[in-house]
Amino acid sequence: MVDSSSLRRLGRYARFSTDDPSGRYIILTFWIIIIIAIFPYFVNGNLGLFVLSLLLSFVLISAVFTITGRSKYSILALILIVPALIAAWTSFFIDSDLLREISSFLTLMVMFLVTFSIFLEVVRAKTPIPRHIIWGAISVYLLIGLSFATLYYMTYIITPSSFYYSVDPSLVFNFSDFVYFSFVTLATLGYGDIVPITDQARSFAILEAITGSLYLAVLIAKIVSLSLVSTIDKGK
Q1: Per-residue pLDDT tens for 160-212?
Q2: Which of 1, 100, 190, 200, by CA, is between 20 and 30 Å from 86?
C-alpha cells in the first residue's frame, strides 16, 4: 500500500517535471553532445553500429521524454518511437537498406515532432525567461543538426551518389560523416570535403544553412533581449 509520504514525493516530482523541465532538456542535450563527441571513435565494425544504435536510442527516448505531458504532439511521438527503435535495432542485426531507410524516416519524424514542440515553447516564451527555455533553445539547435544528419543519411541510402568526398572519392559514408557534415552546414562553415551532388542533397544543405543562420539571428537574439528586459525590470 502506498503511504502519504510516497504520494507527496510523487506529486513534487510531477510538478517539477511539468513546471521546470530543465532536467529533461539537459539530458537530451547531453546525449546529442555524446553522439558528436564520442561516436566518431566507434565508427567501424559491429561495435560502431552497436554504439550508434544505442546512442540514437538514448537520444530518441530523451527527446520524446522532453515533451511527454507538455505537448499535443507527445502521443504521436510516443507512437512513432516504438517502430523507430524496432527498425533501428533490427537493422543492426539484419543488413538491409530498406530497414535503414525505414529507421531513418521514423527517427526523422520523431525528431521533427520533438523539435517543433520545443521550438513552439521557446518562441512563445515571455519575461521573465524560465531557465528551461534557455536549455530548450540549445536542444532545438542541436536537434536541427541531428535531424538533418538523419535526412542526409537517408538520402545517401536511397541515392548513394548524392554526396561526394573530395579527399577520397571511394569513401563509403556512414552516419557519423553526416553528423559532421550537418553541423558544419548548420554553422555555415563549409569546409568542402563532403560535397552534395544531387539537386535534392543540395536543396537540403541550403535549407539547413538558412535554418541555422535564421535561428541564431532571430530566436537566440529574442531570448537574449527578453533576458535583458527581465534583468532591467528586476533592477527597477
Answers
A1: 999 999 888 888 888 888 999 999 999 888 788 899 999 999 999 999 999 99
A2: 200
Number of domains the chain is built from: 1
Identify which of 98, 97, 30 has the alpha carbon closest to the alpha carbon of residue 63: 30
CA neighbor of 176 nearest in space, from 201, 145, 199, 206: 145
Residue 202 and residue 155: Cα distance in Å, rounded?
Answer: 11
pTM, rounded to two decimals: 0.84
Residue in 201, 208, 203 with CA at minimum distance from that of residue 164: 201
Distance CA 74, CA 218 (A): 26
- C-alpha distance across the termini of the chain, in Å: 52
Look at residue 3 and tell me if it is in a domain: no
CATH number of the domain to which 24 belongs: 1.10.287.70
Alpha-carbon distance of 50 to 47, in angstroms, equals 5
Q: At what angle do helices 45-67 and 22-38 cross, to 10 degrees?
A: 160
